[in-house]
Amino acid sequence: MSTSMNQVLIDSRGIPTSLRFTDASFFIEPTKLDGHKSSCCAGIYRRVKCTEVPLRNVVSARIASGAVEVQYLVRKGKESRLNLVMTSGTVQNEDNTRAKKWCEALILVAYQGANPSKNLKVLVNPHGGKGKGSASYVSKVEPILLAAGCTLDVTYTTHSGHAIEIAREMKLGYDALVIVSGDGLIHEVLNGINQHEHRNQAFCIPIAPIPTGSGNGMSLNLLGLQDGLDVCAAALNVLKGQPLKTDLFSFTQGDRRLISFMSQTIGITADIDIETEQLRWMGDTRFILGYIRAIIARKSCPIELSMKVVDQDKSRMVDVLHARRAGESPSPSSLPSSLLSDDKKPDGASSSHEEWTRFERPILWMYAGQGPFVSRALMQFPVSLADDGLIDISIQEITSRKTLLRAMDGAEEGQTYWINTNRYFKASAYRARPLASKGMLVVDGEQVPFEEFQVDVLNGLGTFLSPYPHYAPEFPVRDIQGKTQGTSV
Ligand SMILES: Nc1ncnc2c1ncn2[C@@H]1O[C@H](COP(=O)(O)OP(=O)(O)OP(=O)(O)O)[C@@H](O)[C@H]1O
């Protein structure tokens, strides 16, 4: 029997079990005597069932009262969500000191040398999404964070705007801000940080969303489609994620300045958010219902829109995205000159990204922002990069009801789609002004009166925890006709 440093033998409820790890996985291998009872055969073991756990899913390993305890996250089935489980057993043929060393060695590789015991500020919104934030936090998230030995400073928000106050006054010593809610609370936290006495330092504390809101766009962008709505996967990201720098946006309207981290939207897409507020209990289905309602009404949105356009060629945007994912360095300040060549100038107008270009056509909606998903059913910015210094602007010109409804092909459970809007731009800034009666626009879920405003990019000011060096990979993209545009955009 191997007694290598990477293995210990335990007695797990009467079953001799080997625990070992490699560079990639942790293995639990129950063993039993191969048909013999004689002690002379005690060394001959037959493996009965082996469990392999990715090392990343290992949360804790320790010795407690002479027993080894390892906690880790596993899925019951390929498609199912993660759950925290524990394997434990008394140490066999080993002394406690060696088993303790084994636990330390496992944690060292499972955390790649990082400290598992983080100092965390946790904000829980009991009101977000279907109202299950508190229950999910207590039953699923907190046990994972405590298992890792984290120190938790938890606040349950009591009113709208509460998270702004907390973030504005918070201490700077936290390793991360854990936001148990949807995108709306992240928006509040970033706006609180923006008013912090030590703003720049506060912006460096990474934010880790735990998806208990309606849309949970940021969580989907960081964790991907499979894990983006899984609170246990998000808790694991708190422990194991690496800081990902993201652009933020400065939204200026008169004297008012807001930080936006995800999106600003005007027209039908804003109405969807506003008019389905009372359907919060439906989760993200409320957006699909709202979309159908809005398309039937098909209200136009008369605005004057000007942008500092950097690119408007979708296929080139996909190429740039792939190049960045393949490791090419970002080039926000040195955009390829080809992007600005004469044949690609927007609407034939003369343009460099320092010049304003007017978009003159009548529209149904405008969605500007970053991060592929705004909700599970809506991949609004599939070619978005986290820190390219640009804002993606998607504009739906007025078109037939039939064409618009066909976008719903992609809005099935587990499906995503790119509303193949008539126009998609990357810009360094934009301005919008209502041309008719003013309504509301929506900034990261916050309703704001639609009056003239300007948005500028704050390059790389935001920090989120992420398992990936970019937004999560492999977003399948469908266009409005339901045709696949690419599978790993
Ligand atoms: N205790 C509370 N009672 C009422 N509202 C609250 C409370 N705490 C926070 N809020 C407000 O709840 C709003 C909605 O939260 P959040 O946006 O996180 O969830 P959501 O809208 O369901 O999700 P998403 O933005 O992902 O669609 C926040 O903008 C915040 O102002």
From TrEMBL:
Region Disordered: start-end pairs: 323-354
A single Gene Ontology molecular function, please? phosphotransferase activity, alcohol group as acceptor
Q: Name one GO biological process term.
A: sphingosine biosynthetic process
The cross-references to InterPro entries, in alphabetical order and at most eight, read: ATP-NAD_kinase_N (IPR017438), Diacylglycerol_kinase_cat_dom (IPR001206), DUF7493 (IPR055916), Lipid_Phosphate_FormReg (IPR050187), NAD/diacylglycerol_kinase_sf (IPR016064)
**Basic and acidic residues compositional bias: what residue ranges?**
341-354
Report which superkingdom the organism of origin falls in: Eukaryota
A GO term from the CC aspect: cytoplasm
* Any one Pfam family match given in the protein's UniProt record, by short name: DUF7493
Return the Low complexity bias intervals. Answer: 329-340
The keyword Cytoplasm is assigned to this record: no
Residue limits of the DAGKc domain? 115-255
Keywords for this protein: Kinase, Transferase
How is this protein named in the record? ATP-NAD kinase-like domain-containing protein
Taxon lineage: Eukaryota, Fungi, Dikarya, Basidiomycota, Agaricomycotina
